[in-house]
Amino acid sequence: MPQTIPLRWGILGCASIARRAVVPGIRASRTGVVAAVASRSLDKAEAFAEAAGIPQAYGSYEALLDDPDIDAVYIPLPNHLHKEWTIRAAQAGKHVLCEKPAALNADEAREMVEACRQAGVHFAEAFMYRHHPRYRRIREIIASGEIGAIRGIHGAFTFNNAGDSANVRYRRDWGGGSLYDVGVYPISAARYILGTEPEAATVHAYFSPEHDGVDMMASGLIEFHGSVALTFDCGMWAHGRNTLEILGTEGRIELPSAYVCPPDRPSAFDVVVRGERRTETMPAVNQYALQADDFAEAVWGGAALFPADDAVRGMAVIDACLKSARERARVAL
Fold first, then answer.
1. What distance in Å separates the CA atoms of residue 169 and residue 208, rounded to the nearest whole number?
2. Which of 41, 80, 153, 302 has a CA that sits 20 to 30 A from residue 202's CA?
3. What is the pLDDT of residues 217-235, one digit of tens each?
4. SUPFAM superfamilies under this entry (predicted)?
């Protein structure tokens, strides 16, 4: 596909994350425009398009993929549909930004990545937080040795939406559950910060009979090389938290809004070294816009910040977490 500036995006589905965050993020980017949206209901697609100011609406995903004026698609469909529509988008010559989790398991993610590779299109998993410059700054602080050797990481991402019984997050066969929905964030962050893959996972979860048996809360231990571990908890039936702490021998880094942060005001994190605390403040940025820009640069021949295979490795960890929680056992990776 020839380079097109700006990158012309199509949205497969009318999910709230697309409306609230990704479409505004693409609009705020340097590189992208939202050219079309598709739903299985034309009325729904037209309503979404009118509300969001999108010029074209389609009543099927196939129709959008057939549009030669679409360069890339964003897929915020329920998790069990990610594989099918990523592969179909790749076969249609569209680059793919797929909402996390990439798939239901590592095998599916591997098929998706291979389909994109064979089609010569770029694939990325939509972890927007990794594109925020504060994470590069945190890695710089760690590499400088200021907080010493890393001894542990703790992450939490919880919210309470349990009363919405019709929510797709509470369909087990659709890939529902807190590990898929929010546990992926601290696990992804630990892998990124440590620059390595885990060795084992041990997870305890509450599988709620009121919510189709999905894990509404999970707490885990993810073991990394060198006796470093991530401890984390994630939940969809708990008070809201969105935090990360990185503990070193000489200090620690605390992120109070680790994964979700407002685009219209500065974000900050604290560095505590030998009892002295300082706050590092980053300028206001839209991390969804930065994600769109990094994606476009990769499409146009630049180096991808996160290779497609990262999604496969991330799903392998989630596979191990779910197996551990269901079997009540430590699972080696």
1. 12
2. 80
3. 999 999 999 999 999 999 9
4. Glyceraldehyde-3-phosphate dehydrogenase-like, C-terminal domain (SSF55347), NAD(P)-binding Rossmann-fold domains (SSF51735)
Q: Scanning the structure block, which residue is given the tokens 């988008």?
A: 89
Q: How many residues does the chain have?
A: 333
**Could you tell me the residue range of the domain that residue 328 belongs to?**
131-332
Read off the CATH number of the domain in which 227 is found. 3.30.360.10
User: Which residues form the catalytic set?
Assistant: 100
Whether 181 and 187 have beta carbons less than 8 Å apart is answered as no
Please indicate, yes or no, whether residues 108 and 188 belong to a single structural domain of this protein. no
- Count CB neighbours of 302 within 10 A: 10
The answer as to whether 1 is a domain residue is no
CB 97 within 8 A of CB 75: yes
Q: Which pTM was predicted?
A: 0.96
124 and 176 part of one domain:
no
Range 187-212 average pLDDT:
98
E strands of 39-135, at which residues? 56-58, 72-75, 95-99, 123-126
Full DSSP string of 214-245: -EEEEEEEEEETTTEEEEEEEESEEEEEEEEE
Cβ atoms 251, 274 nearer than 8 A: yes
Which of 146, 157, 143 lies closest to 187, judged by CA?
Answer: 157
Final residue of a domain: which of 108, 128, 148?
A: 128
pLDDT of 2 > 60? The answer is no
Exposed, middle or buried: residue 281 (CB in 10 Å: 0-12, 13-18, 19+)?
exposed
Residue 5 is predicted with a pLDDT of 79
